[in-house]
Amino acid sequence: MSSAVSEVPLPPRAKDDLPDVHDLLTAAVEALGGERRDGQLTMAEAVARSLRTGVHLAVQAGTGTGKSLAYLVPAVRHAMEKESTVVVSTATIALQRQLVDRDLPRLAKNLAPLLGREPTFAILKGRRNYLCVHKLNTGPTDEPDDEVLFDPFAVSALGRQITRLNEWASETRTGDRDELVPGVNEQAWRQVSVSARECLGQRCPAIGDCFAEQARAAAAKVDVVVTNHALLAIDALENGIVLPEHDVVVVDEAHDLVDRVTGVATGELTAGMVNAAAKRCGRLIDQALADRLAEAADGLTVALADAPVARWERMPAVAGTVLTALRDAAAACRTALGPNRREETSDATARKLAVALLGEVHDVAERLLGAFAEDDAATRFDVVWLSEEERRGLVLRVAPLAVGGLLRSTIFARSTVVLTSATLALGGAFDTLARQWGLPPSADAPGGTGDGAAASPVSGTTRRTADGSTGSDPSGSAAVAGMATEKAPPSDTSGPRWRGLDVGSPFDYGRSAILYMARHLPAPGRDGLPPEYLTEIQELVEAAGGRTLGLFSSMRAARQAADELRSRLSVPVLCQGEDGTSALVAKFAADERTCLFGTLSLWQGVDVPGPSLQLVIVDRIPFPRPDDPLMAARQRAVDAKGGSGFMTVAASHAALRLAQGAGRLVRSMSDRGVVAVLDPRLATARYGSFLRATLPPFWQTTDPDKVRAALRRIAG
């Protein structure tokens, strides 16, 4: 938890006498040594209008806009004027740290003379992210898994990490896991942390020293609370009891909101979980009941071994019988444990841990059994699939088919919401993501765009076509926007009012960067990178003199490219997994000749402005895997309703990921370079125009000679 508090008393300021957003933003930018950006001011005024009217806002702000200040300034002003709290939610730890360690402290200090006091702020995370003092004092209650128990090296490593945690515990003021550098693995952290279900609450003897409670108490008193999408989702699921009372939510990195909420709402079940629950309650209840649960775990092992490792269209008969027995056994054990009562703290802890895991097992089993209540798979609320993992074996999962209903009835119903990212207008329109958020397909707010298309403050924008000629910008055209569904969207006028706005970017993408589509290459296959791709990568990297970020569709492809090109190139080639991501990015940034290859997980973790990054290579259009059970189910559901599941789900997913990857290239006004997409379908397929309309307005070409010549000029 971090907060800012005024050190010098300032004269009080009447709430109705606060400077307007324009003046506050101007003062903040000048104090920070920045310069006025039209897009930033446009966004700040739009955010202020939304907070004033209660109309939700989706605002696309390209790299370099300064969107953090554009929403923080009106958010702070609103919080102080209304004496309320604003919640800012992010998807990544990096952005949380930027807001709490850099942006908010500087903003608070520089706006204090105008506002009459320093705005206050805090960071709040889920309970599992904080050190549990009680668990640390009483010793870990979680038994290491079998893999650790039978590996003396793993046991030794676990012991060393727990020793580090004990040493850190005597020094930390926050107990926040992210402040432990270097960190520890999940197995070690579980020995000193608890989930919300496992927490003893007010009965805990260490409640006065509880880091999680201290963070919550601090968050309840500040103007701005910074949190993450996962905790925002938990707050929605728990009926608003997790976050402090608030009337505004700013969702930064909003392109990731649906995935993060889906992750929180996904349940999973393994035989190991059931066995652990049986062990936890075995010493607290009649042994016969615990044995009944353990037998259900054995039955689950057998049932899953005979079940298809894929998405389940219907519940296998044996699995249904076993899940019913498992659910009932978990319920019986939980009943036998009884309600909370006066007892020794150690007994209360053991009871709470048992109840927590039993509750999870019972609830997931019941949800799995109810998932197939509807005969038509397209009308079901949940998707069920079985997967096999190297470490945990067979895992049965259940996830929501969509989360829009949840978001609409909770987050959008309780607060005014501002959603922002550099990538929100897919194919030039906001409607695709709006539907996923649970918003109606038409923006009916005064001053809104009317159809959810991206309204831009700049008119007459042009883009280069694939052959290098100048054409009109397809962003926002009805033809391109309509491709997201192929059918007219269903009538929905009952939903929340919202507005979509694209404030553009201060970067001149048409002069700064080239989008190269390797039209001459073969379509990507399933058996690794074709030889032609490896040759193309080699020639591009040689022309750039290194300076390359390679973003691949799989770890296998990244390793194949790294292994092959190390023998062909004279420049260093790093590969994801060979070191921590931050260490690899630091090495990449430090040496201009270095290349870094990795997968999708790198796409949001690389921010390297300057000459170290002048070429971004994408091996293929990042469609979801065809065997992804959740994406396939969502795609089929759209098809069943008369839409195009491919465009709405697969192409939209690809557009979002491709735009995020391409966005790694131009990070400052002086950056120059090439985004090279080796997949020829970007230039040849019908959906290619939809994907290209989501990207920044790069100069486009399919000529490899022009691209290599441009890279040599830039590098020289």
Topology:
Layout lengths: L20 H11 L6 H16 L2 E5 L6 H16 L3 E5 L2 H23 L5 E3 L9 H6 L7 H4 L2 H18 L16 H5 L20 H9 L4 E5 H9 L10 E5 L4 H8 L2 E3 L1 H12 L4 H19 L11 H21 L7 H26 L11 E8 L3 E8 L3 H6 L1 H4 L1 E6 L9 H7 L24 E3 L5 E3 L5 H5 L15 E5 L6 H4 E5 L13 H14 L3 E4 L3 H12 L6 E3 L5 H10 L4 E4 L16 E4 L10 H12 L4 H18 L10 E5 L3 H4 L3 H7 L4 E3 L2 H12 L1
Parallel strand pairs: 1-9, 1-12, 2-4, 2-5, 3-4, 5-9, 13-18, 13-19, 14-16, 14-17, 15-16, 17-18
Antiparallel strand pairs: 6-8, 7-8, 10-11
Q: What would your notes on this structure say?
A:
The chain is α/β, with parallel strands linked by helices and 716 residues long. The protein contains 28 helices and 19 strands. The strands form four sheets. The chain has a seven-stranded parallel sheet with strand order 3-4-2-5-9-1-12, sandwiched between helices. Helix 12 runs parallel beside helix 14 (317-337). The longest helix has 26 residues, at 345-370. 48% of the residues are buried.
Unreliable stretches, pLDDT < 50, 5 or more residues? 1-10, 144-154, 443-491
Instruction: For the record, give the distance between the C-alpha atoms at the N and C termini, rounded to a whole number.
Output: 47 Å
Radius of gyration (CA) equals 27 Å
Number of strands: 19
The fraction of residues in strands falls at 5-15%
The percent range for helix content is 40-55%
Side-by-side strand order of the widest sheet: 3-4-2-5-9-1-12
Largest sheet: 7 strands, parallel
Tell me, rounded to a whole number, the average pLDDT. Answer: 86
**How many H/I helical runs?**
28
Shape: globular
Assign the structural class, choosing from mainly alpha, mainly beta, alpha/beta, alpha+beta, or little secondary structure.
alpha/beta
